[in-house]
């Protein structure tokens, strides 16, 4: 099991859902900027939070543009897109999270809704950047 920490911006407002077993959960994407200057690019992770973790995210009013850190178990998930093509994405099963303090500590850490664009659908090549393709 791979444990990971990611710092980035939430790409869309969170929506609390309920599983078929009546357990609360929330699933959202986080965008992390990697590299610098000309080689800078954005990497996306899908975050899955269940139970109390999902409730805490909602009570804290995490929303599109919120700058947060997350930790959890990293998985490579194979899924079928709406067009029928099989693809892969990086998914983190949330263990812990928190807001990243930014700017003046006396100023609120809330980020405006316009701070981050919507995340485009990532392809397998985009997930792993300039490195070798992901395993098939």
Outline the secondary-structure elements.
Elements: E1 2-10, E2 17-18, E3 24-34, E4 41-50, H1 52-59, E5 67-80, E6 86-99, H2 124-127
Parallel strand pairs: 4-6
Antiparallel strand pairs: 1-3, 1-5, 2-3, 3-4, 5-6
Protein described:
The protein is mostly beta strands. The chain has a single domain, classed as Nucleic acid-binding proteins (OB fold (Dihydrolipoamide Acetyltransferase, E2P), Beta Barrel), CATH 2.40.50. About 10% of the residues lie in helices and about 45% in strands. The chain has two helices and six strands, in the order E-E-E-E-H-E-E-H. Strand 3 and strand 4 (about 40-50) form a beta hairpin. The protein is globular, with a radius of gyration of 15 Å. Mean pLDDT is about 85; it is low at about 105-125.
Please summarize what this structure is.
The protein has 136 residues and is mainly beta.
Question: Which key phrases capture this entry?
Answer:
136 residues; mainly beta; OB fold (Dihydrolipoamide Acetyltransferase, E2P); 5-stranded mixed beta barrel; 2 helices; globular
Major beta sheet, strand line-up? 1-3-4-6-5
Total domain modules: 1
Helix and strand pattern: EEEEHEEH
- Say what the CATH topology is: OB fold (Dihydrolipoamide Acetyltransferase, E2P)
For the residues shown, what is the average pLDDT?
83
Any guess at the CATH architecture?
Beta Barrel
Helix content class: under 10%
Number of strands: 6
User: Sheet with the most strands?
Assistant: 5 strands, mixed, barrel
């Amino acid at each position: 099991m791979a444990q990971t920490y990611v710092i980035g911006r939430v790409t869309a407002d969170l929506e609390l859902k309920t599983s078929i077993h009546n357990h609360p959960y929330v699933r959202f994407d986080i965008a992390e900027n990697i590299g610098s200057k000309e080689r800078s690019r954005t990497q996306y992770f899908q975050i899955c939070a269940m139970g109390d973790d999902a409730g805490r995210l909602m009570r804290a009013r995490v929303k599109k543009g919120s700058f947060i850190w997350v930790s959890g178990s990293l998985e490579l998930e194979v899924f079928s897109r709406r067009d029928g093509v099989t693809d892969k994405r990086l998914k983190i099963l949330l263990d812990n999270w928190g807001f990243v303090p930014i700017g003046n500590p006396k100023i609120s850490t809330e980020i405006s809704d316009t701070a981050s664009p919507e995340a485009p659908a990532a392809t397998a090549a985009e997930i792993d950047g300039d490195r070798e393709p992901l395993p098939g």
